[in-house]
Amino acid sequence: MQGEALVNYWNTVEGADRNGDGVMQYVMIMGDPGHQDSILRTEYSVNTIKEAGIEVEELAVDTANWARAEGQDVMARILAAHDDIEAVICNNDEMALGAIEALKAAGYLVDGGTFIPVVGVDCNEEARIAIEEGTMYASVFNDAKSQADAVVKLCKLIANGEEPTSENLGYTMDGQYVWIPYVPVTIDNLDTIG
Question: Is the alpha carbon torsion for 108, 24, 80, 71 positive or negative?
Answer without folding.
Answer: positive
